[in-house]
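Propose amino acids for all 268 sites.
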């Protein structure tokens, strides 16, 4: 049976805020969790991922979890360890104890961020490409994917790990023309990840059907995901404002963009 009650961690964040609007029309009842209060949602659970008692309470009775909570940019190693490595472990332990069957894990393109940028539109980067994390942040996302794999093989908890590109209402850079995930397509992809049968542990890239796509969307499509958006209408204005990607610019040479520069930067 399709999941109905879904725990959404990271509900106060940028993506959580978009998904709180876009997922209920698919029929989900969302339970919300974040360390920050969720505006206008008095029933949201305000707690840290380190609070195992609160997490246990949060997963009780849910059919699935969408795990967005965590540090979403580069940070100090200790901070990343606490939120993204220990945090994801606490989440899976709570899910295991409560018998939750399915998790959708917000992984990131930065798990493979040092992969050289392929030709626009080639869709060349396979989901099985070796991990090349570009930051401690990207490294923690690879850890989350491997933890998901372990909990599938050992405990039978299914996960779809979604290596999200850039999910914003509009693409904000020339790089994002290739990896943009429109919010509506994000909701479509999360719905597919929650409802597809027998996913075991599946890794997918998360983007819209962009003309300039860099990666292979076939594992996402195999879940039933049928993206409806394309960043191309934004291309002319972004290229006029920012110029084409320059292979000599270290912030343009890899999939992860300026996360790959030294020190990493994450402005658009
Ligand atoms: P965000 O930073 O806006 O939201 C993350 C939320 O997690 C925040 O509300 C924060 O309070 C909460 N959080 C952080 N550490 C926590 C902890 N220890 N305990 C409880 N709550 C905690 O990030 P955004 O953009 O909404 O991303 C959501 C998820 O998707 C993140 O895991 C991020 O790494 C991933 N992602 C997002 C992309 C995007 O384009 N928005 C791209 C790739 C991955
Ligand atoms: C991410 O993983 C970040 O969470 C998000 O804020 C964006 O910077 C995105 O990647 C990106 O690569 O554009």
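Proposal:
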């Amino acid at each position: 049976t399709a999941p109905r009650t879904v725990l959404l961690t990271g509900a106060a964040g940028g993506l959580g805020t978009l998904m709180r609007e876009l997922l209920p029309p698919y029929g989900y009842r969302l339970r919300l969790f974040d360390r920050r209060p969720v505006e206008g949602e008095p029933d949201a659970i305000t707690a840290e991922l380190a609070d195992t008692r609160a997490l246990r309470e949060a997963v009780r009775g849910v059919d699935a979890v969408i795990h967005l909570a965590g540090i979403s940019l580069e940070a100090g190693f200790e901070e990343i360890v606490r939120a993204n490595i220990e945090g994801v472990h606490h989440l899976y332990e709570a899910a295991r104890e409560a018998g939750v069957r399915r998790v959708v894990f917000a992984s990131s393109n930065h798990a493979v961020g040092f992969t050289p940028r392929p030709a626009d539109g080639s869709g060349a980067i396979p989901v099985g490409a070796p991990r090349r994390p570009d930051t401690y942040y990207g490294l923690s996302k690879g850890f989350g994917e491997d933890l998901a794999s372990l909990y599938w093989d050992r405990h039978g908890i299914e996960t779809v790990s979604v290596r999200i590109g850039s999910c914003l209402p509009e693409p904000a850079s020339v790089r994002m023309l290739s990896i943009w995930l429109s919010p509506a397509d994000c909701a479509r992809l999360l719905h597919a990840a929650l409802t597809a049968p027998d996913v075991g542990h599946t890794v997918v890239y998360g983007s819209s059907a962009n003309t300039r796509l860099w990666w292979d969307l076939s594992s996402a499509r195999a879940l039933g995901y049928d993206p409806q958006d394309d960043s191309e209408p934004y291309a002319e204005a972004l290229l006029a404002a920012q110029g084409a990607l320059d292979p000599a610019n270290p912030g343009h040479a890899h999939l992860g963009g300026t996360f790959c520069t030294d020190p990493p930067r994450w402005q658009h």
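The mean pLDDT is 97. Residues 8 and 263 are 32 Å apart (CA to CA).
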